[in-house]
Amino acid sequence: MAVERFPVEGGHIMMFARAIGDLDPAYHGAMTGTPAIAPPTFVWAADHYDPDSAVRPKPGEPWVGSGSTPSGTGGPESADLGLHAEQRFEYHRPVREGDVLSAVDRPGRTWTKEGRRGGALTFAERVTEYRDQNGEPVVTSTLVTVRTARPVGAGE
Amino acid sequence: MSAVPPAANSAADGAANSAVDLTLDVAVGQTRELTLVRDLTRTRIVQYAGASGDFNPVHTDERFAVEAAGYPSVFAHGMLTMGMAGRVITEWFGPESPLRYEARFRTPVFPGATLTARAEVESVDGSAGTATVTLAVTDQHGAVVMTGTAVVRTSAGGAGFEDK
Predict the structure, then answer these.
(1) At CA B141, angle to CA B32 and CA B133, rounded to 5?
(2) Is the Cβ pair A48, B83 closer than 8 Å?
(3) How far is residue A18's CA from residue A24's CA, in Å, rounded to a whole number?
(4) For labelling alongside B67, which of A29, A134, B53, B160 has CA 20 to 30 A away?
(5) How many CB pairs below 8 Å do chains A and B form together?
(6) How confident is residue B12, by pLDDT bands cut at 50, 70 and 90?
(7) Which of A67-76, B119-128, B145-154 has the lowest mean pLDDT?
(8) Residue B136 · residue B87 · CB < 8 Å
């Protein structure tokens, strides 16, 4: 993910806080005209500002999702996004309404492990650095994805 | 719960200290429990997709999830569970308290789930003004769907970043 500009807006924080079921007034400043604080996982919403996001349908482009067929128009490659195994956030300071963040990421470690039900599990880290408009670090995010030979949860 | 500084919300169990004490009375072994969601709906998962921008159809599209991807149904984003579970930390220590927040997603969370988060203070660093808290999120069957750790500031003047 490369995000050049992720403006942290009060309305977006409010909608995110509603989705996670958190009614803390600190997150709902948009309703009262007070600058909001972002919930700890809010930077996950940076996908909205990633022009190349693989998890957002884009007008005129193929998308893997049901339409006239169960899998839609996307290719098999786009279906393999991996599963989210772990997530780590390190906060250099809280994210607040009015911040304009940017994000760059880099690959981290990769490793494999034998699954409990057989078949190799492949883990891969992706480290994303979020900085503010002054170039100061705000959040360091480490995403760990796992790819499995079969769908997780099927028959478990 | 609070838009006020962590010091003023007297969140610590058994805290009976004076109002001028800027440090939460945090001790190893203290716990908090919070019901995160009852009977998780597909609509709620879609609400999170919209807010987060993660429209992966395994979360949002039942037909795709079942017929194309081979899952029993759609399932929640791990980040929805992590986001919901963050409440037990921020309601206890304040919305600006986290220095680290880490989660491992153990098993998928399917619609119908009722999730409960339990947080426990594992260690306290008095001089740094921080505490390490472990988290476990369980479903209605007692299965642990997420485990996690958070490092939080426990005092307004402690380590980490300055207050607003």
Answers:
(1) 25
(2) no
(3) 10
(4) B53
(5) 172
(6) very low
(7) A67-76
(8) no
Partner-chain contact A22 B90, CB within 8 Å: yes
Specify the pTM.
0.87
Mean pLDDT for B2-15 is: 41
Q: Is the dihedral of CA B48, B50, B51, B54 positive or negative?
A: positive
Q: Which residue has the tokens 């003047």?
A: B157
d(CA B92, CA B89): 5
Kindly tell me if the per-residue pLDDT of B58 is higher than 70.
Answer: yes
Q: Which two tokens stand for residue B124?
A: 């306290």
* Nearest of B89, B88, B97, B55 to residue B74 by alpha carbon: B55
Q: Are A67 and B117 in contact (CB under 8 A)?
A: no
Q: What is the 3-state secondary structure (H, E, C) of chain A?
A: CEEEEEECCHHHHHHHHHHCCCCCHHHCHHHHCCCCECCCCHHHHHHHHCCCCCCCCCCCCCCECCCCCCCECCCHHHHCCCEEEEEEEEECCCCECCCEEEEEEEEEEEEEEECCCCCEEEEEEEEEEEECCCCCEEEEEEEEEEECCCCCCCCC
Give the nearest chain A residue to B67 (CA atoms): A70
Contact status of A57 with chain B (Cβ, < 8 Å)? yes
Contact state of A21 with B103 under an 8 Å Cβ cutoff:
no
Interface of B with A in 113-142 (CB under 8 A): none
What is the pLDDT of chain A when averaged over all its residues?
Answer: 90
Chain A residues in contact with B1 by the CB 8 A cut-off are 24
Question: In this complex, is the C-beta atom of B46 within 8 Å of any C-beta atom belonging to chain A?
Answer: no
Question: ipTM of this predicted complex?
Answer: 0.91
Tokens of B129: 């003004």
- For the beta carbon of residue A11, count every other beta carbon within 10 angstroms: 12
